[in-house]
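Private note to self, pasted from the team thread so I don't lose it. Backbone tokens:
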């Protein structure tokens, strides 16, 4: 069968678990992320002491009501404790816009998050927003300013715009996160007719690109898994074709974990759906969000999203 004949259009509302993808990528390649986005912090950080991911501290600080316009499926928030070479520690607030163009004003949210964290923990975080898609032109990215009767507040935060990065530079980089940023940029551009075929061709290109890098096998595996999950190839026949193409390459025989990656992804999605179903039953039975989180291991954002669906 000709490869063009097995192209299949799937609905645009089918989405990968972007929240999980970015969180896992950040935890796996945090130093490389900082090297690209916050080079001064990267230079001062002491990565001989493992960073601490402060999920509970962030949840305690930021309690979003279910009616908040902030859509949990489109945002990724991380609070991370990073140790510095001078013995001090810094908290890094990472806020990643997945869709990038929806929701409330990002500068307002960044200021709100900073204020809540400071009020709750008496500690000012280093803030970084990573945007995968352009925001509305009326927004002033990187700065929040408010003035009323002589009272003025200005808040500046770091902002990394993935969509403005040069694709050639990202592709030539030896920084693993640059290749993940490149995949995020490509994934946002793949639209319309033959989109599954375009995904297949890009993933094949990504495999060849990874084979040229000096990464070890584990890094190549993890980078490709993040890339494949971002691109989200859904066509089963094209998945099989890609696996065959990869295994047929002398340089890429070590990527035999390809099929395992798709199997694990399917299992992860099935488990998530099962947890959401359990959460709905617990909610109907009158359990509070903390209990539901403990029983299902879902994030509070996932649990709050049940209210948005049921509304």
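Design output:
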């Amino acid at each position: 069968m000709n490869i063009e004949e097995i192209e299949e259009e799937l609905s645009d509302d089918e989405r990968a678990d972007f929240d999980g993808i970015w969180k896992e990528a950040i935890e796996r390649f945090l130093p490389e992320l900082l090297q690209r986005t916050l080079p001064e912090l990267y230079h001062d950080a002491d990565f001989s002491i493992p960073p601490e991911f402060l999920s509970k501290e962030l949840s305690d600080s930021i309690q979003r009501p279910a009616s908040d316009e902030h859509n949990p499926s489109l945002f990724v928030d991380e609070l991370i404790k990073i140790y510095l070479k001078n013995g001090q520690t810094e908290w890094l607030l990472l806020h990643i816009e997945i869709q990038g163009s929806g929701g409330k004003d990002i500068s307002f949210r960044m200021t709100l998050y900073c204020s809540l964290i400071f009020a709750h923990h008496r500690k000012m975080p280093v803030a970084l927003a990573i945007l995968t898609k352009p925001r509305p032109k009326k927004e002033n990215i990187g700065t929040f300013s408010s003035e009323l009767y002589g009272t003025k507040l200005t808040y500046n935060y770091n902002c990394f715009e993935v969509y403005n990065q040069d694709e050639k530079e990202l592709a030539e980089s030896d920084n693993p996160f640059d290749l993940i940023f490149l995949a995020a940029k490509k994934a946002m551009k793949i639209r319309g007719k033959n989109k599954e075929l375009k995904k297949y061709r890009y993933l094949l290109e990504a495999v060849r690109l990874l084979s040229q890098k000096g990464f070890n096998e584990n890094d190549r595996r993890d980078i490709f898994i993040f890339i494949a999950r971002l691109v989200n190839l859904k066509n089963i026949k094209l998945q099989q074709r890609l696996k065959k193409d990869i295994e047929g390459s002398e340089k890429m025989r070590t990527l035999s974990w390809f099929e395992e990656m798709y199997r694990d992804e399917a299992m992860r999605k099935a488990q998530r759906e099962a947890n959401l179903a359990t959460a709905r039953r617990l909610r109907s039975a009158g359990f509070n969000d903390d209990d539901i989180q403990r029983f299902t291991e879902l994030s509070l954002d996932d649990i709050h999203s049940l209210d948005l669906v049921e509304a």
